[in-house]
Amino acid sequence: MAERTSFLLILALWGAGLGAAGQYAKISVIFDQLPSVYPQAGASLGFVVSLVGLVGIVFGVVAGLIVARIRYRRALLWALWVGAGMSLLQAFLPPLFWMLLTRLIEGLSHLAIVVAAPTLIAQLSAERHRGLTLTLWSTFFGVAFALLVAFGLPLVEARGISALFLAHGIWMALFATILGVTLHPQHAPVETELSLHALWWDHIAIYRSPDTAAPGAGWLFYTLCFLGILTVLPPYIPVDWRVWVLGAMPLTSIFVSMTFGVMALRYISAVTLIQSGFLASIGAMVWLLVVPGGPFACLALAAALGLVQGATFAAVPQLNHGAAKQAQAYGAMAQTGNLGNTLGTPILLAVLGMAGYAGLVWTMMALLLMGWAVHTVMRAQCS
C-alpha cells in the first residue's frame, strides 16, 4: 500500500482504461457503417462487436490469475502495445476473417488492461484516496463512449472509419509509452506458480471465496440492468425529453459516483454503499412504475446506479488484501460484467415482449434486489 498517492500515474492508468473502453466503443459508434465495408457479412458482422465481450466471459477469471503471475506492469504494457497493433491493423480494413481475428486478440488485450490497471491503481493509492481513485477508474467506460461520440464520429465523417482506428491505435501506443517510462514495477509476492492445474483450482477457489466473488456477483446484476435500461426505456420517455435524458443518464451516474459516492466512502464501507445504491435503484424503479418513462425518475435511477458503479471497484481492495487477490477479484468482475452486458438487453427485451412495461419494471426490480441480496449473503459469510 502506498503512503502517498501518485495522482499523475493514476490519471495515466485511467487514460489506458479509456483506451480499453475504446476497444468496445470504436466499433459500437460506427457499427451502422460497417455493412458498407463488409457488404457480404450479414449477421456475422455482429461478432465484430461481441467477440471482445465473449473473450471476457470465457477468460475473465483466468486473466486475473495470469496477470497476477506475470506481473501487473508487464501485463498492462504488453496489452497496450498489442491493442495498439490491432487497431493499426484494423485501420487497413482487412477482410472480415482477419478483422474478427484482430478483435479476438483485442479481447485478450482488453481483459489484461481492465484487470491490471485497477490493481495498480489500488497499489499506487494511499488508503484515504482509494475511494476517489477507484471511483475515477469506474468512469472509464462512460467517459470513453462520450468522447468517441463527441470526437470520434466527426473524425469518421471527415476522414473515414480507418482514421478512427488509427487514432485509437495512436492513443494506446501513447499511453503504453507514457506508462513504460513512468510506471515502475510493483513488488508483490507471487502466491503460486503458473500452471494449468493451478489455474483450474484457483478459478474454483475465487468463486468459493465471498471476498473475491462478492464484487463480481453484485456487478453481474448491475450490468444486467444498466445497458438494458438504456436500450429498452427510451421508447417510454417523452419524445421532447428523450435525447436529453439519454445523454444525461450516463453523465448523472458519473457525477454522483465522483461526488456523493466518493464522500460517502469516507464514512461507510464500499459494500454498504453498494447495497444502498441497489436499494435506491429499486426505489427509482417504483417511481418509473408509477410514472412510466418519467425523465426525473430515469435520472434518479442513473444516480442510484452510479453509487453501485463506483463503490464496486472500491470494494475490491477493502475485501481483498494483496495485489494477487485484488487481480483475481477484478478478473471475476470482468467475467461477470461481460456476461451481464451480453445477456441483459436480450433478457429485458424478451420480458418486455411477453409481459409489457409493468413486467419489465418488476423484472428489473427483482434483478436489483438480487444484487443487494448477494452482497448481504456474502457479507454474512465474510463475517
The CATH topology of the largest domain, please? Growth Hormone, Chain: A
Query: How would you classify the helix and strand content by structural class?
Result: mainly alpha
The end-to-end distance, rounded to whole angstroms, is: 24 Å
Portion of residues in helices?
over 70%
Our count of domains comes out at 2
Mean pLDDT: 85
User: What is the CATH C-level name of the largest domain?
Assistant: Mainly Alpha
* The named CATH superfamily of the largest domain: MFS general substrate transporter like domains
From the 3D coordinates, which CATH architecture of the largest domain would you assign?
Answer: Up-down Bundle
The number of strands is: 0
